[in-house]
Amino acid sequence: MSSQEMKMFMHGRQTMNLDIDAKKLLAVGAIGLFGLAGLTACGTEDEDGSGSSSDTTEAAEDAGEEAPADGDGTSIDAPLAADSSVEVGDWTVAPSDIKLDATDEILGHNEFNDPPADGSQLALFTVDGTYNGSETGSLWFDVTVGIWADGTFYDSTDCLNVVPEDLTEAPEVSNGGTAAGATCVEIPSDAETYLVYFEDLMSFDGTKYFVEIG
Predict the structure, then answer these.
(1) How many whole angstroms separate alpha carbon 62 and alpha carbon 54?
(2) Is 109 helix (H, G, I), strand (E, B) or coil?
């Protein structure tokens, strides 16, 4: 089966507290000069707006801005870093050599390759995988790959163009074996955010794993 036919076959398989407890401590029955001095200090802070309440709020805001994302890759809000690998089914996979606009390269590779639609471009990236299963696996068949762009999933199986070192030509491997190949994805040219995503074809829970594009 040619890589073009494999891509067409794959196209057919597609059918995704901090509870703020504001406790106020009221000093009651202050005695003598020390008590008076303490109350005076509190009044001064309230008047000039430089009290500890303001400082605490600013610290909380700073902490919120710097708080790291969950980083488990299962959410678009917490994708894995660009150099990360991810466990997907029986595979450990990672994207590499990502080119968001490889239109000219792909069209130049094969005279029969189709150009993207108006407002779109052809992305190209490599998928590297290690098989961890007990039998044998085919990377191009077992793992769905694509690019998420501004809320929409663009599957690599929708791009039927032939690319150099095509993923569909990656060999079937046994436990511990590695496979790699390139795949193309047609994506919008004007998206603000792009993420690579992976999904286990045999899983029915709909979990996708997202990886940043460096």
Answers:
(1) 12
(2) helix
Q: Which residues contact 24 (CB under 8 A, 6 or more apart)?
A: none
Q: How far apart are CA 70 and CA 79, in angstroms?
A: 8
List 145's β-bridge partners, or say none. Answer: 198
Q: Report which residue type is found at 80.
A: L
Question: Which range among 31-35, 50-54, 194-198 shows the weakest confidence by mean pLDDT?
Answer: 31-35
H/E stretch holding 202 reads: none
Query: What value does the mean pLDDT take over residues 79-87?
Result: 94
- Residue 154 is predicted with a pLDDT of 98
The H or E element containing residue 63 is helix 52-66
List beta partners, residue 210.
197
Number of H helices, E strands in the chain: 5, 10
Decide: helix, strand or coil at residue 93.
Answer: strand
